[in-house]
Amino acid sequence: MPYERIDFVSAASGEGITSKLRPCIFSEIVVKMIEFPDGFLWGTATAAYQIEGAWDEDGKGPSIWDTFAHTPGRIERAETGDVACDHYHRYDEDVAIMSGLNLNAYRFSFSWSRLLPEGRGRINQAGVDFYNKLIDSLLDAGIRPFATLFHWDLPEALEKEDGFRRRGIVDDFAEYAGVLADNFGDRVKDWITLNEPSVYTFMGHVFGVHAPGMQDPVAAARVAHHLLLAHGAAVPVLRSSEGARVGTTLALTAIEPETDSDGDAEAARYAHALQNRIFSDPVFGLGYPKEALELIPEPPVEPGDLEAMAPEIDFLGVNYYTRTVVKHGPNAPFKFIPVAQPGPRTTMEWEIYPDGLRNVLVDVAKTYKPDKIFVTENGAAFIDPEPVDGRLEDPDRVAYLKSHLTAVSQARDLGAPVEGYFYWTLMDNFEWSFGYRQRFGIVRCDFATQKRTVKDSGHFYAQVAKANALP
Ligand code: FCB
């Protein structure tokens, strides 16, 4: 089936008019209907630190994000995730909202230090209880849980032992995966080992704007390598529980050269290697791209590592937000120069570029041939008005959803096996170093009262999910 059905309807000649449209007074109408296959997953995505709050309740150990956010100067307006959306206490209400929006999947992350306060060893039963309640309530509502193991909030206890810079963390991660499989594997069947290892590596260890706030490229190369090994070690552990499907989530950016000059093409190769292929190539058994190795310190590869990073996976999770246009920059630090584009942007300053989502999906499908792809994050922050009589109009986000879902459908028609879409994010939440200023939710969260209000975009998304089609 083509990705869109377009019927041109002329009121003048009557040609092509369907009986349903005949009474319409417009001289020309374009009807577009984009359909998704049966079983397509419609979800939202969240992360523990960004929504849970209860940062030191019921035996939870601190994570590096607790430490980072509590350090003066790190987060805008000194905001923290101490309370966030208070989802730890309000998960029931949040699941009910998802259910009311007709969603059939939900991507969340486990807080490692809520379950293993010291990062290994002792299990915190209250943490297990919380996730049991959340998972049961999702399943009761017919919502399929997709669980991320690591969405950046490393237990502080492990950071004190050098975090992901220490090779031994691979064993800790495998132990953590085992705890999850043992406690939740009877009900959680879809697992995501890592969220955006590139962002954790670079923002946390090169630019220092995310926890743990380091600026040390040598450390970053170690972190990248150990993240990949940790992924590799967790996959067989998770897969050992019956019916488990395991994948990982990468942040992928559409890279485009500014012109078709050879210099710009070279810049695009470096940008693609550094921003995308540095993780996707090793995950799919291709090892590190040579262009990336020219740009970063040598990762500490030992014999057998490249195979250990590349166990077979069941799906690839793609997080897509924007593109990067680059021009020749042989003397720039990473051999490319990003070129700002004049197009419309979100309040994150990210260009709105839906074609990039299609291109990224088609590109990874062709390059790595994953069995399945899920868009595990895609979304937009805008300045929203206050709700009026319970309604919040956010037309920009509705338009963003429409254009990006169209791109997903186009990618499917071009052969990318995309089987689900998770909008980032369910409700406005703690957006890392920006604090609460950046609002991505299809549900508004009033952080003073914790009142949730479904935005117009939420109602729109609910219609899409119900119809399994884009009107
Ligand atoms: C992604 C993160 C997610 C959220 C969005 C806006 O990089 O995975 O937690 O912050 O960006």
Topology:
Elements: E1 5-10, E2 28-35, E3 41-45, H1 48-51, H2 64-69, H3 87-100, E4 105-109, H4 112-115, H5 125-140, E5 144-150, H6 156-159, H7 169-184, E6 190-195, H8 197-205, H9 217-239, E7 245-251, E8 254-257, H10 262-283, H11 290-295, H12 305-308, E9 315-319, E10 323-328, E11 336-338, H13 354-368, E12 373-377, H14 395-413, E13 418-424, E14 443-446, E15 451-454, H15 456-467, E16 469-470
Parallel strand pairs: 3-4, 3-13, 4-5, 5-6, 6-7, 7-9, 8-10, 9-12, 12-13
Antiparallel strand pairs: 1-2, 2-16, 10-11, 14-15
This protein binds beta-D-fucopyranose.
The site of beta-D-fucopyranose has 12 residues, from loops.
Tell me briefly what this model is:
With 471 residues, this protein is an alpha/beta fold. The chain contains 15 helices and 16 strands.
Characteristic terms for this protein:
single chain; 471 residues; alpha/beta; TIM Barrel; eight-stranded parallel β-barrel; 15 helices; 16 strands; disordered N terminus
Description:
This protein is of the alpha/beta class. 37% of the residues lie in helices and 18% in strands. It folds into two domains: 1-35, no CATH class; 39-470, Glycosidases (TIM Barrel, Alpha-Beta Barrel), CATH 3.20.20.80. The chain is built from 15 helices and 16 strands. The strands form four sheets. The chain has an eight-stranded parallel beta barrel with strand order 3-4-5-6-7-9-12-13, surrounded by six helices. Strand 14 and strand 15 (451-454) form a beta hairpin. Helix 8 packs antiparallel against helix 9 (217-239). Residues 47, 50, 195-196, 199, 251, 319, 377, 424, 431-432, 440 line the site of beta-D-fucopyranose.
